[in-house]
Amino acid sequence: MKELDGRIAFITGAASGMGRATALLMAAHGATVIVADIDEAGAKAVVDEIAQAGGSGVAKALDVTSPEQITACLDSVGAQFGHLDVLYANAGTPGATGHNVSQAEYDFSVGVNLTGAYFAAQQAIPLLNKSPHTASILFTASTAGLVGSFLSPLYSMSKGGVVMLAKALALSLAPKIRVNVICPGPIDTPMLPRFWSREKQEGVEERLDSWVANDIPLKRRGRPEEIAEAALFLAGDRASFITGVALPVDGGFTAR
Ligand code: NAD
């Protein structure tokens, strides 16, 4: 028996990185995965990968900064499937780093990382309530939502908000829906060097390697598949008594 057999999972930011890895893993474990992303071609490519592996997926173009698009997207999911079992609000952006952030940059970061997570959850709740199982909401925050990020106060603030959103929803949606948040450390996806190059273009990989060597006890970057394993566990019934947890998957970064 596969862990998510027959379940319907909706993942935002699923065209790349950890969202993509989670879509592939959840589909391999029997879920029908709705692969939602602002990058529609990327979402379709992930659905093709799922199909090639014998799984089932549907691609949706979605900009999570638009509550109207989230509503329309979830309405179409409701019309097709009738309910949802798993929502993984994962889409995120590094946004601007440093202190001299403009109002437009502020609105963009908060729009993707926090507003996008909030409205994805809010709009999915009616469909999750129709799940025949205990439904599950997952978010991707960051270790920067647990401890301050020296690179970006704005990113830390938005991800800290996601952590608290998850905890508050865990209380208000129990016992029907479990809610947990994954807090990744440095994970090898296209976003990681983008985040570090905001401060300065030169020597991004070297600066990252040096930070990882000094500050990550396991002495390496994580892989998107390692986030997907945590997401699969938290989404399914093996985690049936776990709600309101902010789980670092960070090579030990926040242990000190
Ligand atoms: P990624 O760049 O590989 O994937 C992010 C995906 O989100 C992309 O497919 C992108 O198109 C999509 N996206 C961006 N803006 C969107 C929007 N407005 N609407 C819909 N989709 C949108 O990056 P990743 O590292 O896999 O990031 C996934 C999550 O993990 C993000 O929330 C990020 O903040 C968080 N995170 C990443 C790291 C890391 O080291 N990579 C560490 C901590 C947290």
UniProtKB/TrEMBL annotation:
PROSITE patterns according to UniProt: ADH_SHORT
Family matches, as Pfam families: adh_short_C2 (PF13561)
Entry-linked InterPro entries: NAD(P)-bd_dom_sf, Sc_DH/Rdtase_CS, SDR_fam
Keyword Membrane: no
GO molecular function: oxidoreductase activity
Keywords carried by this UniProt record: Oxidoreductase
The UniProt record lists the keyword Heme: no
Family under the similarity heading: Belongs to the short-chain dehydrogenases/reductases (SDR) family.
Stored PANTHER family: 5-KETO-D-GLUCONATE 5-REDUCTASE (PTHR43669), ALCOHOL DEHYDROGENASE, PUTATIVE (AFU_ORTHOLOGUE AFUA_3G03445)-RELATED (PTHR43669:SF3)
NCBIfam families found in the cross-reference section: PRK07231.1 (NF005559)
UniProt name for this protein: Short chain dehydrogenase
Organism of this sequence: Acrocarpospora macrocephala
